[in-house]
Amino acid sequence: xxxxxxxxxxxxxxxxxxxxxxxxxxxxxxxxxxxxxxxxxxxxxxxxxxxxxxxxxxxxxxxxxxxxxxxxxxxxxxxxxxxxxxxxxxxxxxxxxxxxxxxxxxxxxxxx
Length: 112
Prior knowledge:
The chain has strands at about 5, 10, 20-25, 35-40, 45-50, 60, 70-75, 80-85, 90-95, 105-110. With about 110 residues, the protein is mainly beta. Strands 2-10-9-4-5-6 form a six-stranded mixed beta sheet, with no helix packed on it. A four-stranded antiparallel beta sheet has the order 1-3-8-7, with no helix packed on it. The protein is globular.
């Protein structure tokens, strides 16, 4: 059974930083591309970033490029998202995603 549990969210002021983590289990994590997806209140899910299986290639949605950095630790089955210069529009529930499964998300709220 695929399990994905994101953590590390919270309330942060605009311009602040947060580091999200995702614990993955139930599938061959190290050989699969992983995604970060977010869903803002009242909106549909939005893809944010992808990390290749080895972690050497990352791609980002334009609104987060340059501010977010996705990485992974395959030995620990962990995915990470370092978020900096956060904006109110980054407020959302953040999920890691594998093959359409999102699992448990973590709330990020950016507000003064």
